Amino acid sequence: MPVKKKSLKSAEVMSEKKSCCSSMGGAGCGMVKKLFVTLLGILLVYVIVLVGSLIRNNLQEYTYIGQADRMERTITVEAEGKVTATPDIAVTTMGMVSEGSTVAEAQEKNTLVMNELTKKLKTLGIAEDDLQTMNYNVYPRYNYTEDEGRVLEGYEVHQSLKVKIRDLDLANSVLALAGEVGTNSVSGLDFILDDDEVYKAKARNKALEKVGEKTRMLARSLGIEVVKVVSYDEYESGGNGMPVYKAYAESAYGIGGGLPSPDVQAGSTDVMMNVSVTFEIR
């Protein structure tokens, strides 16, 4: 008899569940199941993201600690290498400032002188590719009076030509042209190296030789072993040597009056490279 009561009770529970689903309808039961599955999926994604973040943070911490330990076992050695070279190119700028009551008049005066300068430079052997017009400007010229204030009196034309001299023996003659053709503006005479990379390479090799010597000496003194290069850095330092100018006391620019031309010497220039090498040691 007890068995029959239990069976009867189970049947009643099933009957209640069926009646519940019946009252909600098939669509309601389906929505409940979908909601449950969705919540379960969201929870699963959250757990996966959380675990992934923990793993990533642990890896980053491990990498950082490893790098810090590694940087503590390094040594940096610096050295400078220098090479002295003779410049093989001279550069100067020659120009003309002319005045006129009109722009056309000032331009005509300027053009006559600058064209003559260009012609004679080419006659000396300066290639056309080594002649470059740097600027050409026209400015009004004013005068100030108490009665009329600012009064236009004329115009000025400024023109300059950059000259690259590859044959240094011609430098004196080029400068002398200023007086011969009547230019009234000469600025700078710089001596440079046509290909300084060759000298940079030599200076770099000298610096690296010094680094090698210092490193070997430190290894013996400190009782360490150099494993490998961790980083390398270099930069160019120093400045060019100054050219030597020798002008005769009785001379002036220009050869029109039969006076000697300026005597210009190229001198020398220093190319210096600084290197810094960091080694891993143990």
Total number of beta strands: 9
Biggest β-sheet strands, sense, barrel: 4 strands, antiparallel
**Which fold does the CATH topology of the largest domain refer to?**
Alpha-Beta Plaits
**Run of helices and strands:** HEEHEEHEHEEEE
The number of helical runs is: 4
The N- to C-terminal Cα distance equals: 88 Å
Which architecture of the largest domain would the CATH scheme give at its second level? Answer: 2-Layer Sandwich
Explain how this protein is built:
A hairpin with a 3-residue loop joins strand 3 (131-145) and strand 4. The protein is an alpha+beta fold. The protein is flat. The strands form three sheets. The protein has a four-stranded antiparallel sheet. The chain folds into three domains: 33-65; 74-85 and 196-281, Translation Initiation Factor IF3, CATH 3.30.110; 89-192, 2-Layer Sandwich (Alpha-Beta Plaits). Mean pLDDT is 81; it is low at 241-259. It has helices spanning 2-71, 103-124, 171-181, 197-222, and strands at 74-85, 89-100, 131-145, 149-165, 185-192, 226-237, 244-246, 263-265, 269-281.
